[in-house]
Amino acid sequence: LFCFQILRKEERRVRANDREYNEKFQYASNCIMTSKYNIITFLPVNLFEQFQEVANTYFLFLLILQLIPQISSLSWFTTIVPLALVLSITAVKDATDDYFRHKSDNQVNNRQSQVLIRGSLQNEKWMNVRVGDIIKLENNQFVAADLLLLSSTEPHGLCYIETAELDGETNMKVRQSVSVTSELGDPNNLASFDGEVVCEPPNNKLDRFSGTLYWREKKYSLTNQNMLLRGCVLRNTEACYGLVIFAGPDTKLMQNSGRTKFKRTSIDRLMNTLVLWIFGFLVCMGMILAVGNAGWEKEVGSLFQSYLAWDTPVNNFLFSAFLSFWSYVIILNTVVPISLYVSVEVIRLGHSYFINWDQQMFCSQCNTAAEARTTTLNEELGQVEYIFSDKTGTLTQNIMTFNKCSINGQSYGEVTDPLETQPKRLDFTPFNPLADPDFCFYDDKLLESVKVGDSCTHEFFRLLSLCHTVMSEEKSEGELVYKAQSPDEGALVTAARNFGFVFRSRTPGTITTTEMGRTVTYSLLAILDFNNIRKRMSVIVRNPEGRIRLYCKGADTVLLERLHPCNQEVMSITSDHLNEYATDGLRTLALAYRDLSEDEWEAWSESHRFADKATDCREDRLAAAYEEIEQNMMLLGATAIEDKLQEGVPETIAVLSLANIKIWVLTGDKQETAVNIGYSCKMLTDDMTEVFIISGHTVQSVRQELRSVWLCAHCDTAGRRGGGVGKQLHGSPPPPPLPLSNLMDNISGEFALVINGHSLAHALEADMEAEFVSTACACKAVICCRVTPLQKAQVVELIKKHKKAVTLAIGDGANDISMIKSAHIGVGISGQEGIQAVLASDYSFSQFRFLQRLLLVHGRWSYLRMCRFLCYFFYKNFAFTMVHFWFGFFCGFSAQTVYDQYFITLFNIVYTSLPVLAMGIFDQDVPDHRSLEYPKLYEPGQLNLLFNKREFFICIAQGIYTSVVLFFVPYAVLSNATQSNGVPLADYQTFAVTTATALVIVVSVQIVLDTGFWTVFNHVFVWGSLGSYFIIMFALHSQTLFRIFPNQFHFVGSAQSTLLQPVVWLTIALATAICIVPVLAFRFLKLDLKPQLSDTVRKHTKTQRKPPGQGRLGARGGSRRSGYAFAHQEGFGELITSGKNMRLSSLALASFASRHSSSWIDTLHTQTVHTVCFSGENTKTVIKKKKNFTHTVFLSQNASVTSGSLQEATYRLMT
Amino acid sequence: MMASSYNAKEEDGHHSGASSGTGVSKNKKPDNTAFKQQRLPAWQPILTAGSVLPAFFVIGLIFIPIGIGLYVTSNNIKEFEIDYTGVSSDSPCYNCAKNFTWNTTEPCVCTVNFTLHQPFESNVFMYYGLSNFYQNHRRYVKSRDDRQLNGDLSALTDPSKECEPYRKSGDVSIAPCGAIANSLFNDTLVLYYVDSNNSISEIPLVKKGIAWWTDKHVKFRNPAGNGNLTLAFKDTAKPVNWAKPVYELDPLDPENNGFINEDFIVWMRTAALPTFRKLYRIIQKKSGATPTLPNGNYMLNITYNYPVLSFDGRKRLILSTISWMGGKNPFLGIAYITVGSICFCLGVVLLIIHHKYDNRNTSADIPS
Prior knowledge:
CATH class of the domain at 400-415 and 426-644 in chain A: Alpha Beta
Largest sheet of chain A: 9 strands, mixed
Strand order of the largest sheet of chain A: 15-34-33-32-16-28-31-30-29
InterPro entries (chain B): CDC50/LEM3_fam (IPR005045)
Strand content of chain A: 15-25%
Structural class of chain B: alpha+beta
Distance between the termini of chain B: 40 Å
Family (chain B): Belongs to the CDC50/LEM3 family.
Membrane topology (chain B): Multi-pass membrane protein
Largest interface: A-B, 157 and 130 residues
Number of strands of chain A: 37
Helix content of chain B: 25-40%
Number of helices of chain A: 42
Protein name (chain B): Cell cycle control protein
Oligomer: heterodimer
Radius of gyration of chain B: 33 Å
Strand content of chain B: 15-25%
Largest sheet of chain B: 4 strands, antiparallel
Structural class of chain A: alpha+beta
CATH topology of the domain at 400-415 and 426-644 in chain A: Calcium-transporting ATPase, cytoplasmic domain N
Order of helices and strands of chain B: EHEHEEHHHEEHEEHHEHEEEH
Main location (chain B): membrane
Shape of chain B: extended
CATH superfamily of the domain at 400-415 and 426-644 in chain A: Calcium-transporting ATPase, cytoplasmic domain N
């Protein structure tokens, strides 16, 4: 599509304020139309779409067959009524959707915007905005079209936008106009603006724009930085003017709205296979009966012609057989009931609503209920075998607390007194009136050290108060609010604040702090900003005394390399501390400073300016410049920040692993951090025989390590169990003797595997993946650390490919989107990191612990219900349809139906649909709390026990058996029976009524047996359906209807006449008993001899609770050096030093309370700080608009943060 | 299904998942109703030994007596059947069957003698039975026009297409049209009793009351013709196979003529199976103690009009008495006894199995 557009139009020319000129190009207007139909086109277009569904086309085909009189074995309405019902249900749904789309289109199109026409601002509807118009936007307004920002009320032509609607990111972004146009402040100047923009044609790349502005004989290049895209909201900017470049359907937002395919469940796939088989079966039966027909017509029919002549075109028995084949296809088509797909959808919809309604998955803190965003996957929730979880924000809360620190070789924060069980929280207020009351710290040694004035401690906290990009807001004196980009940074600055080094405010050139009660203003000379490669940030400040100092904080691995050699001793102690902290699962940073002389500063400053101005390779040059000065630093110490676990995580993981679900943690974090989180959430336990760590950097070493893991696990198990024989793993065999899959399964629980991202890259290569999968699956817990978003998806794909198991990915951030998309089921946590993950997910809720309820309760029930529904549905339709097959042998294979045509029409949609729907929606085998108490109840779903090909054949067999009974019992009884007045009962209509009644009763008794949970709905539906059968039958056989349509109601009087006969009822009772007694006996035996766990749980209503999970674990094995690359987005440093984001840069520092300076904060206030942890690799993210469940917008984003500025994120359309 | 595109409303919309503090949003906590929380009160039946085993015994105990009752009743019913098709050469109707031609004006008559060894008490029902006759063939079943048979005048002159190829005879529409009507069974059976001194007496046969009430009074009606059937049917032709038009089926009784002729109605009620019997006449019980049909010799006089040999069909005469449950039907009784016994036995077997494994189950704890 994109290429096509390029070919079609190489460039777009837009001249400002010149509608005539622009109209030549016939650009799309700003009117959008997302609706698919209007009143006239609705019927044809909608029907056309619906008939693209195979099932609908099939039934249409049947309908056409039925219109051929020689073939028609059923009246046309037997197919058209159900088909019309199904089509109209779908059509009503589509029409409703489209109506709302019309409404929202209208609403959007009729929004007012201010357009500059002939020098004055006029209100125009959005849809009347043309390309080339200049429009004025005000604060908090939606951007009406893709605009070139011309000028804004803010300094430097800056304006701020929120792109949440576009890409889901909630942080604010900055756009800046080209400097020449930013001076065109007022409408009069803009009205005379006649610049011409030449740019690329419409495309869907959200982060790219290239164009040139020609104005007054000069060229200005335009980038995405100058563009305001439709869908954004103007924030924190009084007003701005923009030139419409793309309008309506050409806007990037609209260009990105694509279609996507829904995920299909394994039951869906199985169902499709089975339906195909049934079609095959149908054709076979048709053939058998056609052959029968040929034989019959040849042997009997041809002789019988004196009484029954052949139809006009039929001249021989073969042609008759051919027609008979099609006739039988028509009457046997009910083995594939048209209502199957609709019913399945209805059931799934019901289950989705139950998920949405579940109070126990509602998080009151964030006021978020669980949401089933996809309604087609519910039963697969009951079959999950592998869970892939993100760590940050999913297992952990992403709330950071300053926990420990090491200053000049002295560690603080460890509460040493073992007797004191509840350490006392330090009270900072007497010491420091500016302290944050929420801050918790327990070690008073550190406070003492500050109080006595230890210079290192002071310098440590001074660094923390200076080296950051936090913005502060002081609403009233002493009431500080910090707005930090990442929670880590906020925690550090808050810690410094409480220990007496209060960051008060900043301007582009200064930082004001209150150090031990004394206000100090540092001049900020440079911010050496963070990025993912540097993994550190520095500031260079001049203190009031004039001394220049560089403060640096960063990942220990990076920072320790850049220390002055004299730090050797402190460094080794600090390293030990860092190791300790990492072992405790804390996130660490190392801090250092460097004194700079005036000359050094001048020299570096010059080179920095030079690098900054460079037009090519600016990034690299800047990095080199930074590198140059961040050398020979003096180590101050290290900080340790605790990453708090989410509520109920260990319990949930314990329950899920008892349910035999394997949980893999895929995280971008450090190995040590990840392992520690593994321990704290009980994925790893001390009971484990061994925790293997694979961190090789080369293919050989990774292979070696994997083999040794395998050997170790194998020897251990072999030693314990003396070996065993099992089936071989599929996939390419690993070089050591093949792991035996059941053996491997048996040994799980003993081992855990931790693999590093770089090792994983090798392990995921084609020749090693089978080996990796078999090894990893032998381990109970697998933790992949340092993985990129792409690798997350690869791991998921690997398991999908090799294990054929249902996978679930859960995460909250943009980096999880790829795995959420590739797993069978994606769950999004609506948490700290925005809503991208939620938008891409199939289910969303706000707490990890809700996962156990989603899977063990809702998933399990959905699976159970769907399986029971399908079993019964297939049974019912075979019992119903196969009677025709048997009858074929007695009616000359003439495709005569056994039942009345009205019965055939109504059987599936009226007489038997609701009870089975009620069962499919409401059935429960055990109550919800039981399935959480006995996680083993989840296993049948994983093993696919309740509905598989075997179960299907059993259902089919039962259905066929029932049909045999239903045909031959009435046959045997009625062939000789007479009414009590001597009239024979063997007439066709009596036979039809008897069989139909017996069928309805038998399938009703069967549903009574199948239903395990009789709510009032089940009662109403079961008895109601049975009652409706008799009422409708008596109505259809009534004299009234016959008198009106004598040619349509042939069965007049049959019901009355037949059902009054005791013989008929005796026949029905006999048939019912013969059908049901074996089923009852079989079920009883199964329950009695081989009860399933669910049966046992169901029986034993009062059981003791199982013992609580294992206790907390103590010491763990040594782990290596830790370091933490903090989760910053870069670019804020630049913004701060340029002062662009500060209105009154020239005014006094203390005036932060003014309206202007706080406006930035105000806006930030409404946002959650948005932290994305991109690891250099491209992140495939797909942002899904929240909307009704069938219609979604998919944008996709390919983000890389290695490149320059805050907004550098590469978006790419995926679909 | 495909998810489609962008929804403009979303530009305005608030994401439920977004944590942006757009002020006071309403509480989204789901309602705490039993329905929404799936806590509806429900009956949860379990197939326990306490409920299933008694069910088997109860079924057994109900079915066996019913079966015995049915069997005894059925055995008390007297039924006599005789094939008069004339297949073998020693059959009295051999000649009639063999020499049958459609165009004979003189009907062939044959006489079959038979003996009843037991007297038939109360009303005796006389049936004709046909075998290998596919009245349930799809093309046969639909080949009728119920509007015409219901006396609709427009259908009388323009019958339904379903009647093809028995719809029109030349340009005149056939009444009654269709294959069913065309193949009306038209043998005439007369029964004589031959008493011990060889005197022959004709047994009175009642030809009314053999059809369904709804058929006779609702479904079949003669076209309005001021009481004159000949006039009513004047624009129609007789069915091809018929010897006389429909208004001459029973010229003596206007209540049994035309479409409402009961023999015709009985024939038009198609059989479900290729072997069937249809009620032909009723022999009313005589007053007094004499049996309706005493044992002895009988003579069946057949006017052989109906050819069946061409398609290997058979014709029978059946005489039967009736009980509350209809005619002789040994299958039902035997089936009931069998099913009842099986249920009972199953009950016993399951009881034994259950007791044998009972200990294991009650002691078995729930694995966690």
